[in-house]
């Protein structure tokens, strides 16, 4: 079984530019989560999809972040415009059921210069 | 937000059992104990979870005290590849489904 895959693995952009991160969950997993770790901090929850619907987006830092999951398959997380403080590692996770364990991808390391 | 406390670090000799403690004194009746680990530059990896009974899988064993206020993750034969940050997390059933990560505990397995 293929795991959660994230693209790209690394991204370096300049402040003010736009970046789109992609996550492909494990096939058949309705639940998809985004998390991030900024330098020196703990891993923080961003949001949770159930199929294509946003179940909980309480962790989204501001309106420069937009997450979508059209069709309930893969998800994208767009940062526009990127700021220096957005640098960090963005993790995606999926689970089969709401109470099933989350399985994480290896993350996208975003560097904003 | 984390509702667990773990020592910041621990060392273990290769081939020996690693016993990783976690305190969750305010755990509620509907909260499970989850363990994840993060090996450098990888995403968090699920290890095991339990409610009140002890659990075992191919990776580890989870021992939860009778009062559920603490638990121990046991890696029976630690290898160098088990060096990682280990996270003990309580996760409610019936409330928010998200995992809340704390600082975790760095386990170093020494040769």
Structural account:
In chain A, 0% of the residues lie in helices and 49% in strands. Chain A has strands spanning 5-7, 10-13, 19-24, 31-37, 44-50, 53-56, 65-68, 75-79, 88-95, 103-104, 108-112. The mean pLDDT of chain A is 94. Chain B has 111 residues and is mainly beta. Helix content of chain B is 0%, strand content 47%. The N and C termini of chain B lie far apart (36 Å). The chains are: A mainly beta (113), B mainly beta (111). The A-B interface holds A 4, 31, 33, 35, 42-45, 48, 55-56, 59, 91, 93, 98-99, 101-107 and B 2, 34, 38, 41-46, 49, 93, 96-103.
Q: How many strands, which pairing sense, and closed or not: the largest β-sheet of chain B?
A: 5 strands, mixed
Straight-line N-to-C gap of chain A:
37 Å
Strand and helix order of chain A: EEEEEEEEEEE
**Strand portion of chain B:** over 45%
SSE series of chain B: EEEEEEEEE
Draw up the topology in text.
The complex is a heterodimer of chains A (113) and B (111).
Chain A: E1 5-7, E2 10-13, E3 19-24, E4 31-37, E5 44-50, E6 53-56, E7 65-68, E8 75-79, E9 88-95, E10 103-104, E11 108-112
Chain B: E1 9-13, E2 18-23, E3 31-38, E4 45-50, E5 55-56, E6 61-64, E7 70-75, E8 84-92, E9 105-110
Parallel strand pairs in B: 1-9
Antiparallel strand pairs in B: 2-7, 3-4, 3-8, 5-6, 6-7, 8-9
Could you provide a short overview of the structure?
Chain A has 113 residues and is an all-beta fold. Helices cover 0% and strands 49% of the residues of chain A. Chain A is built from no helices and eleven strands.
Annotation keywords:
heterodimer; A: 113 residues; mainly beta; 7-stranded mixed β-sheet; 4-stranded antiparallel β-sheet; B: 111 residues; 47% strand
């Amino acid at each position: 079984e293929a795991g959660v895959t994230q693209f790209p693995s690394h991204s370096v952009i300049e402040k003010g530019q736009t970046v789109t991160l992609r996550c492909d969950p494990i096939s058949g997993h309705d639940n998809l989560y985004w998390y991030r770790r900024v330098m020196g901090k703990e891993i923080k929850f961003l949001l949770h999809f159930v199929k294509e619907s946003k179940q909980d987006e309480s962790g989204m830092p501001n309106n420069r972040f937009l997450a979508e999951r059209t069709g309930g398959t893969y998800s994208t997380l767009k940062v526009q415009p990127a700021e220096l403080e957005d640098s960090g590692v963005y993790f995606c996770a999926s689970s089969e059921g709401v109470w099933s364990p989350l399985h994480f991808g290896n993350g996208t390391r975003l560097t904003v210069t | 937000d984390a509702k667990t406390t773990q020592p910041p670090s621990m060392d273990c000799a290769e081939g020996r059992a690693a016993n990783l403690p976690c305190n969750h004194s305010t755990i509620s009746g509907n909260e499970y104990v989850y363990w994840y680990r993060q090996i450098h530059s990888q995403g968090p990896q699920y290890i095991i979870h339990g409610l009140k009974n002890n659990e075992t899988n191919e990776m580890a064993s989870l021992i939860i005290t009778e009062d559920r206020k603490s638990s121990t993750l046991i890696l029976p034969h630690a290898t160098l590849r088990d060096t990682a940050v280990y996270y003990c997390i309580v996760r409610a059933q019936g409330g928010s489904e998200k995992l809340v990560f704390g600082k975790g505990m760095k386990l170093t397995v020494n040769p």
